[in-house]
Amino acid sequence: MKSQSGLTLVEIITVLIILSLLMGFLVSRLSGAGDSAKAGINELQMKKLQSYINQYQLRYNTLPSSLRDLIQCNDQTGPSCLPVVNSEDELVDVWGTDYRYSVDGGGRTYTLKSLGADRAEGGSGANVDFTLSGP
């Protein structure tokens, strides 16, 4: 009788289970790296937006009352102002949520906040809230 070489069904299933476990582990690691990369990009975008707020303050000697003041003229800037920011896309974080901006009662300091990947207060990792204050 001639012997046949090949894999049995049990061996094939074992290999498929090992490969699926390995792929599941790799995909979970890669998705976590993407979230931390987005968090880093978000922090850079917030610092850029902070510099736009500082430019506005230097031009008009006051803080903007809202982030929309950076892209459009208002009573303080006059009708022929030059916008500090060219696109509304710069007023949202990497997760597509509007940055939260507030000015204190005296108009001397501001707070810029992103709610993170979960778009809710609090969290950890990529869900952590990022906050910058100025001037």
What does this structure look like?
The protein is of the alpha+beta class. The chain has a single domain, classed as Glycoprotein, Type 4 Pilin, CATH 3.30.700.10. 39% of the residues lie in helices and 10% in strands. It has 1 helix and 3 strands; from the N terminus they run H-E-E-E. It has one helix at residues 9-60; strands at 100-103, 110-114, 130-134. It has a 3-stranded antiparallel sheet, covered by helices on one side. Strand 1 (100-103) and strand 2 form a beta hairpin. The termini are far apart. The mean pLDDT is 82.
Question: What is the strand content?
Answer: 5-15%
| Rg from alpha-carbon coordinates | 25 Å
* Stretches with pLDDT under 50, minimum 5 residues: none
Report helical residue fraction. 25-40%
Please give the count of helices.
1
Described by the principal axes of the CA atoms, the overall outline is rod-shaped
Write down the secondary-structure element order: HEEE
Distance between the termini: 88 Å
Overall tally of structural domains: 1
* Proper CATH architecture: 2-Layer Sandwich
Number-wise, the strands total 3
Q: Given the helix and strand composition, which structural class is it?
A: alpha+beta
Descriptive key words:
Glycoprotein, Type 4 Pilin; 135 residues; three-stranded antiparallel beta sheet; 39% helix; alpha+beta
Report a brief summary of the structure.
It is built from one helix and three strands. With 135 residues, the chain is an alpha+beta fold.
